[in-house]
Amino acid sequence: MASADNTSGASTPKSRRNDVVAAEKEQFGGIKFGSAFFGWLTAIGLTVILSALAAAIGVGVGAANSSTANDAASQAQENAQTIGIISGIVLAIILFVAYYCGGYVAGRMARFDGVKQGLAVWLWGIIIAIVLAILAAVAGDQFNVLSNLNGAPSIPVDGSALTTSGLIGLAIAILIPLIGAILGGKAGMRFHRKVDQVGIDHQAGLV
């Protein structure tokens, strides 16, 4: 009976929760760039960690599969295209997982508007990449520090992105983090809706 009351009707706990959340969101909703910044820090840190882990696994697999230096060179030349595709897939997975976690952190911290928080996490990454790219163009490439972090999205200032592989890599670095951050932001926000529902159920005497 309680389950049915919780899903329909104007005065059910679920509808009251929606009313409470709507009122809270009106006052405290919107993009929270502070929360999004911490989400971006989570994303960039996890990107570096996962990239280093993937590189270590790749080196280990390569060492295990090659008997001599000549064999390794020959095999690498023959499988260059396959390795490039695999590397792109691994990078996409790393960026998705990292920015999903970053969006989740921002969504949990901000409590409302999970999609907007995820978008803000992604915007932090774009803004910082642009600022560092401009600084690198003015003061020297050594200031484009994101280019030194394996897997971290960055904007090259030497024209290296104006190739097919460069454009594909840039698209991966832009679109995958956006999708991951938005989905993570929505997931982080859902936790608070569960908490809100428990509070309403308690007031209604259902728990």
UniProtKB/TrEMBL annotation:
Q: Which domain of life is it from?
A: Bacteria
Q: Where are the transmembrane segments?
A: 37-63, 83-107, 119-140, 160-184
Keyword terms of this UniProt record? Membrane, Transmembrane, Transmembrane helix
Keyword Membrane annotated: yes
The keyword Membrane is assigned to this record: yes
Q: What is this protein called?
A: Uncharacterized protein
